[in-house]
Structure formats: structure tokens, C-alpha cells
Amino acid sequence: MRLLPAMSALAAVMIVACGPSSPGAASPGANVVAKNLSASEGVVVTAGCTPTGPELCFNANDDNCNGVIDEGCGVGTGVLQFMIAWGDSPADVDLSVMDPNGARVTKSNRSTPSGLLLEKNCPDDGCHQQNVENVYFDGTEPVRGRYVVEVKLVDPRNAELPVKVHLSARVGSRTWAMDLALSPGQGQDKQGFSFEL
């Protein structure tokens, strides 16, 4: 599989994940586990949550550390979920996810045959200064293989640079987070990560 130029310089990262850990209780997606996770050069993957209390909306975080991102906020979730948030910035930022079959969910193709769905294309879909985009898997058994998640700065729209974007990922019952800094040109307009199921 050929990765886009910004993804070609991937660096392996050590993963510390967050999620439910009650012994003996099988959580949804317990058999869905990320392997061989790699991120764009310079991107640090961290635990997706630090328990801070109740879940907050539109921040692309697993605030209550239950393994689900922004639950109760009107966004779809599943055993795979990828969410970005960039606050009230006027910038146009896009989230895309490519499944192992090469099908890509984007703002112009909001679903794939494998079950990935994109909600909202902010700020154009009336996001009311709470910019988030969310891709999730609608099903219980996602296609096995390599997934590629990319976040691209499409148009800064006079936003302060770099545009700071928070990306969180749920794979099974675990979550991870990354803070991205996107600027036009020189390969800094696109960052992301990939993993295998």
C-alpha cells in the first residue's frame, strides 16, 4: 500500500492506552486491538484520557476514561472511532480514514462499503464555532488489515497558524490522542497515523 507523502515518513511510537479495565468483564470491541501503530514524524501518541470527571462535548477527548470519545454528545461511536476538534478556528480541516480495502471516507465520500461513516464537515456544516469531525465504524466486526487516518489543513481561512487540532482514536475498548499543528506547505498541512487490526 502506498501512503501519501506526509505519511511516508512514519515513526513507530510506543502506545499507552486508556480504557475500561474491570477484570472478567468483556467490553464491546474487546477482540478489536490495534497493532503496529505508526504516526507521522514528530507526532506524539499519548494515553487518550486522564480522568477529569464527566464527558465534555466537542473536544474529541475521552474525558471520563471509559473508552468512548465524546459519548452523550450526539456523535456516532463504534469499536472504531476517529475524531478531531479544533475549537472556534475558521480553518477548514478535514479528517479522512482509509480502510484495508483502500476505500476512503472523506467529506466527498461520507461512507465506505466496509461501514466507516463520516459525520459533519466543519466548519461548513453549521458547526457553531465547535469544530469537530467524527468517523466511526457502524458494526461489530471491522475489516482486518491496515487503516490510515489523515488530518489535512484544506484552507487556513486567515486562522492563526499553526492550526492546532486534537485527534483522538478509539480502537476496540482503548483510546489514544494526538495534538497536531498544521500549517500550509512543506508537508506540514497533513499529519496522522496508521495501525493494523
Pick out its properties.
197 residues, mainly beta, six-stranded antiparallel sheet, 1 helix, 12 strands, globular, disordered N terminus
Structure description:
With 197 residues, the protein is mainly β. It has one domain. It has one helix and twelve strands, in the order αββββββββββββ. It has a six-stranded antiparallel beta sheet. Strands 3-11-10-4-8-7 form a six-stranded antiparallel beta sheet, with no helix packed on it. A hairpin with a 2-residue loop joins β10 and β11. The radius of gyration is 16 Å and the shape is globular.
User: Distance between termini?
Assistant: 15 Å
Number of distinct beta strands: 12
Low-confidence stretches: 1-26
Number of alpha- plus pi-helical segments: 1
Using only C-alpha atoms, the radius of gyration works out to: 16 Å
Strand content: 35-45%
Largest sheet: 6 strands, antiparallel
Strands ordered across the widest β-sheet: 1-2-12-9-5-6
The share of residues in helices is under 10%
Structural class: mainly beta
Domain tally = 1
Assign an overall shape: globular
Helix and strand succession? HEEEEEEEEEEEE
Average residue pLDDT: 83
In short:
This protein is mainly β.
